[in-house]
Design a protein that fits this description.
Elements: E1 2-7, H1 14-26, E2 31-35, H2 41-52, H3 57-81, E3 85-89, H4 92-102, H5 107-118, E4 125-130, H6 133-140, H7 154-170, E5 175-179, H8 184-197
Parallel strand pairs: 1-3, 1-4, 2-3, 4-5
Helix pairs in contact: 2-3, 3-5, 4-7
Bound molecules: thymidine-5'-diphosphate.
Thymidine-5'-diphosphate (TYD) binds next to helix 4.
């Protein structure tokens, strides 16, 4: 079982990621918790570059997919092969949303890279924390030093949100849309319902 968490910055997925991992562990599963960009030593090094160094959109996409390749080979595929659940904070949908939607980068190129790097591997379940960009921006304001993405204007996050919506529409069976605008408990109830629906 490969579960990913997605949504624009400020959508509030972090606490729920830990809670999902805890729930699966309590049910007796081995859980591997990870994130992207990152997840292995090499991919975490690439993450630092992607989040903090200026670069053009193709370089950014290539570094993200290079990290993803390492992450899949070193961590995700071995974990899935031994029957562990992999819970990952962001994956390829973020590339389609941020690089594709936000940056306006060629979706066809992203699809090619996705095919090369993933060899057909997709998450079994993607919890998509959907929240209007205006609300997410308000939650983020002043919270921490922004990275290259968090510095972007509201218009960028509108395009990212549209990128997520397009991906969810194209692959509806793996997506569970979570309305992330409510209180934490209300959001958690939706997350639990999505897990239960899949026998988790
Ligand atoms: P995030 O997990 O939100 O890190 P943090 O919570 O520590 O800020 O991800 C970092 C940023 O990377 C986020 O703004 C989204 C961006 N990102 C992409 O642009 N493309 C990708 O493929 C991924 C996985 C993330």
């Amino acid at each position: 079982m490969f579960i990913t968490f997605e949504g624009i910055d400020g959508a509030g997925k972090s606490t729920h990621i830990a809670a999902v991992a805890e729930r699966l562990r309590t049910a007796g599963r081995e859980v591997v918790l990870s994130r992207e960009p990152g997840g292995t030593e090499l991919a975490e090094t690439l993450r630092e570059l992607v989040l903090h160094r200026p670069m053009d959109a193709l370089t950014e996409a290539l570094l993200i997919f290079a990290g993803r390749r390492d992450h899949l080979r070193q961590l995700i595929e071995p974990a899935l092969a031994r029957g562990a659940a992999v819970v990952c904070d962001r994956f390829t949908d973020a590339t389609f949303a941020y690089q594709g939607g936000g940056r306006g980068f060629d979706l066809g190129v992203l699809e090619t890279l996705e095919g090369w790097v993933q060899q057909g591997r997709q998450p079994d379940l993607t919890l998509w924390f959907d929240l209007p960009p205006e609300i997410a921006a308000g939650r983020l304001a002043g919270a921490r030093v922004p990275d290259r993405f968090e510095q972007q204007p509201l218009e960028f996050f509108r395009r990212v949100a549209a990128g997520y919506a397009a991906r969810a529409q194209a692959q509806p069976s793996r997506f569970a849309r979570i309305d992330a605008s409510g209180e934490r408990d209300a959001v958690w109830r939706q997350v639990e319902a999505a897990l239960r629906e899949r026998g988790l």
